[in-house]
Amino acid sequence: MRQLSVVVPVHNERDNILPLIDEIVTALRGRADFEIVYVDDLSRDDTLAVLAEARARTPELRVVRHLAQSGQSTAIRTGVKAARGDWIATLDGDGQNDPADIPKLLVLRDGSPADVKLFAGWRVHRQDSGSKRYASRIANAIRRRLLRDDTPDTGCGIKLFERAAFLDLPYFDHMHRYLPALMQRAGWQVRSVPVNHRARGAGSSKYNNLNRALVGIADLRGVAWLIRRSRRTAVEEL
């Protein structure tokens, strides 16, 4: 097993692929045993062709493609299942997350107790529109009050987590927005880490405030139900 797999889900991000891959390689080559797993969620542009070009020059790169568009959570899970690393770092494919933060997360992991299984990025200085930041503040406040996950920013794309712990979580669409609460439900600890955040380099966002809100209401109720119905038991082997 490799030490680290960097999983990047993408849909129609052809202009952001090569710059982001170059940044990941610059941040990690010589510092960690790593691979990069891009998951193409059936892009309609030439994302796949650009990834093929990148793979020819980047030995750490692997490419997985969905045969039906399935959304970001499914793409992340596809990448994690395909990954060969014991630990996973995720990045959004739009380039707003800074790969230079990954080594910092690895250092924090190495200095943390073994029961901390998720290091979640916290966009202290978000480079998004005012309406997007406002909607996010409201959504985060509601989520924290309902789920009590003590996490300031669950929507940040850069995260570091243990692969086995992630695959043990219940899977559902949009689950990537609730990883702190789901990890805590499983009995693990979570740390929020301030990270860099950048303006989108090219292309456009695949979401708007309305569709985020509509799916968020149902998801919050579902995650809250999961938490209420959870039960953990200590186990020993005789």
Automatic annotation (TrEMBL):
One of its GO terms (cellular component) is plasma membrane. GO terms for molecular function: undecaprenyl-phosphate 4-deoxy-4-formamido-L-arabinose transferase activity. Keywords: Cell membrane, Glycosyltransferase, Lipopolysaccharide biosynthesis, Membrane, Transferase, Transmembrane, Transmembrane helix. Residues 5-166 form the Glycosyltransferase 2-like domain. One of its GO terms (biological process) is lipopolysaccharide biosynthetic process. The keyword Cytoplasm does not apply. It holds the Pfam family Glycos_transf_2. PANTHER family: UNDECAPRENYL-PHOSPHATE 4-DEOXY-4-FORMAMIDO-L-ARABINOSE TRANSFERASE (PTHR48090:SF3), UNDECAPRENYL-PHOSPHATE 4-DEOXY-4-FORMAMIDO-L-ARABINOSE TRANSFERASE-RELATED (PTHR48090). This is Dolichol-phosphate mannosyltransferase. It comes from Dokdonella koreensis DS-123.
